[in-house]
């Protein structure tokens, strides 16, 4: 999330965790260049800051990713506490050394069952899951590395994963956003092995790519695995929030691997890769963000498992969040704004300029509604926007308030 302020000071300022006054001793010359770099970012209006969230947040929050309202659900919070009491505050090591608890296995079985895959493996974050999924499957085999074909707007974690794959010999090609035809052209060079790599729901605009067409494209080559990031699909798209594979008729597909995060609709923390058993076994043995990373904290595993069970018991939450997103989109469009038509929980509202996007977000905040804001370099010039995320638990009054605040504070 881009959370910059255009009037940021040219020098670094205290973060909340910073100690006041002089800290440490000795020359700081090796870091002197950072002041210049910070000043240049500030001059370009690209400074980022953390956004404090008070415990008793009275704001109406449409900037976070707690799509189903499970982050503070009593059963989810209790499961986190129970897991910490039973297993400790951390796992104490990699899953391969000492950190593998019953809870991890239970969560993996339930996630795989929910998505209809043979197996699943959890990671300490969705970011780590994506690094694992791509690098382990793009690794050279007896000297031969695959072609990796990526949507231009893939998430940063997939981009980083692709960079690592490239460093280990993979050839990488980018195709135009959500254009399966262009992906097919890029795959024409596929020889022995290829990977087609895409987000399902894109995080900035909330648009859903044509996953069935991507699967057909991959299958057309006979050698391509489809790797999908369903971070914004889990719990939101498909019947009962079962995700994009189910929606696209790919449940049980043997040539598709999908990653999810546990930190959005499940309100917890962590990530997972889901797919065929032999893929998951390969990740256990070779994925560096699994082998060399401390296992997912018990509290996070317990919370995610409880959240998944709430979602299974209350599948209407998925319909509710999509419905609320649609109401927000429709309402803002009726009020004359340029708004995306949401496929999932994200609604994006175009701002006239990058400066006005920031001012608009601040005005919403002052009126008690927190929204996200994207501007260059996170999005192309001229495409600065507010990003609103719907939540299953928003009531009618909250939706009306958001519509009023966002439309009345619009830049003129
Ligand atoms: N993929 C996508 C599409 C995301 O939006 C995010 C979170 N911003 C991630 C992966 C990373 O997930 P996590 O926050 O669990 O590391």
From TrEMBL:
Keyword field: Acyltransferase, Biotin biosynthesis, Pyridoxal phosphate, Transferase
One GO BP annotation of this record: biotin biosynthetic process
EC number: 2.3.1.47
Signal peptide stretch: none
Region feature (Disordered): 1-30
Pfam families: Aminotran_1_2 (PF00155)
InterPro entries: Aminotrans_II_pyridoxalP_BS (IPR001917), Aminotransferase_I/II_large (IPR004839), AON_synthase_class-II (IPR050087), PyrdxlP-dep_Trfase (IPR015424), PyrdxlP-dep_Trfase_major (IPR015421), PyrdxlP-dep_Trfase_small (IPR015422)
Pathway this chain belongs to: Cofactor biosynthesis; biotin biosynthesis
Acyltransferase among keywords: yes
Catalyzed chemical reaction(s): 6-carboxyhexanoyl-[ACP] + L-alanine + H(+) = (8S)-8-amino-7-oxononanoate + holo-[ACP] + CO2
Cross-referenced PROSITE patterns: AA_TRANSFER_CLASS_2 (PS00599)
Cofactor: pyridoxal 5'-phosphate
Residue span, Aminotransferase class I/classII large domain: 59-405
Top-rank taxon, per record: Bacteria
GO molecular function: 8-amino-7-oxononanoate synthase activity; pyridoxal phosphate binding
Family per similarity comment: Belongs to the class-II pyridoxal-phosphate-dependent aminotransferase family. BioF subfamily.
Subunit record text: Homodimer.
Name this polypeptide is given: 8-amino-7-oxononanoate synthase
Organism: Nocardiopsis aegyptia
């Amino acid at each position: 999330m881009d959370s910059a302020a255009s009037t940021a000071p040219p020098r670094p300022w205290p973060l909340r965790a910073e100690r006041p006054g002089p800290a440490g001793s000795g020359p700081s010359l090796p870091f002197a260049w950072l002041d210049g770099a910070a000043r240049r970012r500030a001059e370009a209006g690209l400074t980022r800051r953390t956004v404090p969230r008070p415990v008793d947040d009275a704001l109406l929050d449409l900037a976070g990713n707690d799509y189903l309202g499970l982050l503070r659900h009593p059963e989810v919070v209790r499961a986190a506490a129970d897991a910490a009491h039973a297993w400790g505050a951390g796992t104490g090591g990699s899953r391969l050394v000492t950190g593998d608890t019953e809870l991890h296995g239970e969560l993996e079985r339930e996630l795989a069952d929910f998505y209809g895959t043979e197996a699943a493996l959890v990671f300490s974050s969705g970011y780590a899951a994506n690094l694992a999924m791509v690098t382990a499957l793009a690794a050279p085999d007896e000297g031969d590395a695959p072609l990796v074909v990526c949507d231009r707007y893939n998430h940063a974690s997939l981009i980083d994963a692709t960079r690592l794959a490239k460093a280990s010999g993979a050839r990488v090609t980018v195709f135009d956003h959500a254009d399966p035809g262009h992906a097919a052209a890029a795959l024409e060079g596929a020889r022995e092995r290829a990977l087609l790599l895409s987000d399902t729901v894109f995080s900035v605009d909330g648009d859903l790519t044509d996953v069935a067409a991507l699967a057909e494209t991959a299958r057309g080559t006979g050698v391509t695995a489809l790797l999908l990031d369903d971070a914004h699909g889990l719990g939101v798209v498909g019947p009962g929030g079962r995700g994009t594979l189910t929606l696209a008729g790919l449940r049980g597909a043997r040539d598709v691997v999908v990653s999810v995060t546990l930190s959005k609709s499940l309100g917890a923390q962590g990530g997972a890769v889901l797919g065929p058993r032999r893929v998951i076994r390969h990740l256990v043995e070779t994925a560096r963000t699994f082998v060399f990373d401390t296992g997912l904290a018990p509290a996070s595993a317990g919370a995610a498992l409880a959240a998944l069970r709430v979602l299974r018991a209350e599948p209407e939450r998925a319909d509710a969040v999509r419905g609320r997103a649609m109401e927000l989109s429709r309402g803002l469009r009726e009020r004359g704004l340029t708004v995306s038509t949401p496929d999932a929980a994200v609604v994006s509202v175009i701002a006239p300029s990058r400066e006005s996007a920031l001012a608009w977000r601040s005005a919403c905040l002052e009126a008690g509604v927190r929204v996200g804001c994207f501007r260059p370099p996170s999005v192309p010039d001229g495409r600065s926007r507010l990003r609103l995320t719907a939540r299953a638990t928003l009531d009618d009054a909250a939706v009306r308030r958001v519509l009023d605040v966002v439309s009345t504070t619009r830049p003129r």
